[in-house]
């Protein structure tokens, strides 16, 4: 009888500790949000980069959950990449907090943080559709950290896409999206 | 704290051995695993092994090992369909069951464990996981019992968690028992 009481007490302690230690975890969710990149946008070897200012506050799924946002559970940059002219190469995405205006690839590499890439593509005529799985693996820890900070902050940051240094090609990106899975309370 | 809790549960399992009233079983289970409130993870399966240790009437402590495979999840974004691989889970822990009845038992249970979450393109995560649920046990033959369970499993990562509703069927066989003193 004594053992039974002890065990029932143990079970109660487990339940209370579990709930107390985890707060409101039961009422959290993973919510998909996306930001549409300009469609299409082109990374031209002639000027070397493309700038995209992102204000997540324009995304309803983000705006609705911003005050409950705890983390970003998953990330992706997806789209259909087409090399319209030139040799094969790669595309790399950099990020800066806030609304910035870096004007050369060198300034971007020096002043921004690598977020994603490289997404590689073949020579003229090559098409590569980068999906959710492929893309998620291309994020860097440092860039992801900045993106999470900005998502938890004011939701504003700037993305820069640059091609392979020294490679003169033109890569068009159709239906490009930044995909976020928000870990939030509900 | 997670390790301490698991150790405490195992200690509870061992305690009655000293007192001399024990039955020990082995079992297997499998079923469906349905992600709850997860836009990036699809329905999958879960299966595993467990070892129910009946301590005294009403109470069973049950260490378990579980392995789950998440299904792919597709989402439509402005006309573009994107698909993410499901999250696979490998975990272990222990549940405490409060069993009522004889050959037909209805029991609530709760437990704690450690789940490793893996998925293509993401870093592996190891989270403390809490389980709660309700089970129905039927014993058609001596030493053999069939169990139907509904369970909520929550793998906690900071202030959020990934949750699954698991519906499983299992079989347990009592391999050792001593009379209750």
Fold and architecture overview:
The complex is a heterodimer of chains A (about 190) and B (about 180). Chain A is α+β, with helices and mostly antiparallel strands and about 190 residues long. Chain A has a single domain (about 25-185), classed as Jelly Rolls, CATH 2.60.120. Chain A is built from five helices and nine strands. In chain A, strands 1, 2, 4, 7 and 9 form a five-stranded antiparallel sheet that branches. Chain A has a four-stranded antiparallel sheet with strand order 3-8-5-6. The longest helix of chain A has 21 residues, at about 1-20. Chain A starts with a helix and ends with a strand. In chain B, the strands form two sheets. In chain B, strands 1, 2, 3, 4, 7, 8, 9, 10, 11 and 12 form a ten-stranded antiparallel sheet that branches. A two-stranded antiparallel ribbon of chain B has the order 5-6. The two termini of chain B are about 35 Å apart. Classes of the chains: A alpha+beta (about 190), B mainly beta (about 180). At the A-B interface, α1, β1, β4, α4 and β9 of A face α1, β6, β9, β11 and β12 of B.
What would you say about this model in short?
Chain A is an alpha+beta fold. Chain A has helices spanning about 1-20, 60-65, 105-110, 130-135, 140-150, and strands at about 30-35, 40-45, 50-55, 70-85, 90-95, 115-120, 125-130, 155-160, 170-185.
Estimate the strand proportion of chain B. over 45%
What is the H-and-E element order of chain A?
Answer: HEEEHEEHEEHHEE
Q: Helical content of chain B, roughly?
A: under 10%
What oligomeric state is this? heterodimer
Ends apart, CA distance between termini of chain A: 43 Å
The CATH class assignment of chain B is Mainly Beta
Provide the residue-averaged pLDDT of chain B.
Answer: 88
The domain count of chain B comes to: 1
The SSE order of chain B reads HEEEEEEEEEEEE
| C-alpha geometry of chain B | elongated
CATH architecture of chain A: Sandwich
Portion of residues in beta strands of chain A equals 35-45%
Structural class of the helix and strand makeup of chain A?
Answer: alpha+beta
The chain-level structural class of chain B is mainly beta
Report the C-alpha radius of gyration of chain B, rounded.
18 Å
Q: Which parts of chain B are unreliable, with pLDDT below 50 for 5 consecutive residues or more?
A: 16-20
Low-confidence stretches of chain A: none
Tell me the distance between the termini of chain B.
34 Å
Radius of gyration of chain A: 22 Å
